Amino acid sequence: MLRVLVLRSNRFYGSIGEPKTKFPFPDLRIIDLSHNEFDSVLPTKYFVNFKAMMNTENVQMKYMGEYYYQDSITVTMKGYESELVHIQTILVSLDFSCNNFIGEIPRLLERLKSLKGLNISHNMLRGAIPSLLGKLTNLEWLDLSANKLSGNIPLQLTDLIWLEILNLSENQLVGPILNGKQFNTFSNDSFKGNLDLCGFPLSKPCNEENEGSTMELESESEDSNGFTWKVVLLGYGCGFVFGIFIGYNNFFSNGRAILFVM
Question: 166, 193, 195, 227: most buried, per Cβ within 10 A?
């Protein structure tokens, strides 16, 4: 029945062991293991049983508990630490940042489609950013910074239309930064520390080889979807995207969906 598990800022260390039950943590919506010294690979055998993080349908916007939690918790949301007393069921986040996890970003994360926030920054993760992260279309903040990630930024991340905060800084990413959609709203801080990234908003321009890579990515998108995101951008314009965000905020501000005011 556990819905919130916060073990942040302790001195826990070592690897996270195998589950001792058949279906561990099926109702878990918030897990925060940040600022410890856990190592080894990310515990994917737990991820496959986070059923509440997978269900994107029939999620009622209500508070956890009968009325409210007597003891508040502090969670990191969109890069800011926020103290919450009333915790809504639609808040689903996973924070394993500031540990010593190794290996690659597990593809199993694509199943956690209810996630609003994913933070696995400041670890020692390697390999490419999985394109399957583009399936987490409810994400509002994504932090993969300060790892050893390599390769290009996958085009599929442009599908995360609700993404407000993106941090890919301090990795080993290469090639052009994606253009269009919400990527036009991210600042230099989202990409700094990747010496081989180029293009807006960084001051480093892309050369012909990098521009060719961008055209290849656009061509792949056109082949699979019948049109490119550039056509969508020209057809609808930035105002449409911002309109979605404004409508989203106005709609929920009239109900009980506001978690905090900053």
Answer: 166
Rounded CA-CA distance 62/54 in Å is 18
Does the residue 260 lie in any domain? Answer: no
Distance of alpha carbon 61 from alpha carbon 90, whole angstroms: 6
On whether residue 261 sits in a domain, the answer given is: no
146 dihedral zone (left: phi>0; alpha: psi -120 to 50; beta): left
Q: Which two tokens stand for residue 239?
A: 């105002």
Residue 81 is predicted with a pLDDT of: 58
Q: How many domains does the chain have?
A: 1
Residues 96-111 pLDDT 10s: 999 999 999 999 999 9
Alpha helices in the chain (DSSP H): 44-47, 208-225, 229-253
Cβ atoms 36, 11 nearer than 8 A: yes
Task: For residues 57 and 164, give the distance between their C-alpha atoms in angstroms, rounded to a whole number.
Answer: 22
Model pLDDT, residue 208: 65
Considering the entire predicted model, what is its pTM? Answer: 0.74
**What CATH code is carried by the domain that includes residue 137?**
3.80.10.10
d(CA 51, CA 56): 10
Question: What token pair was written down for 35?
Answer: 């600022």
Q: Supply the range of the domain harboring residue 231.
A: 4-253
Q: Looking at the domain assignment, is residue 258 inside a domain? A: no
> If you search the block for the tokens 């960084």, which residue do you land on?
202
Q: What confidence score (pLDDT) does residue 178 get?
A: 93
Is 173 a domain residue?
Answer: yes
Taking the C-alpha atoms of residue 119 and residue 100, their distance in angstroms, rounded to an integer, is 14
Q: Is residue 28 within 8 Å of residue 51, measured between CB atoms?
A: no
Q: Which amino acid belongs to residue 27?
A: D
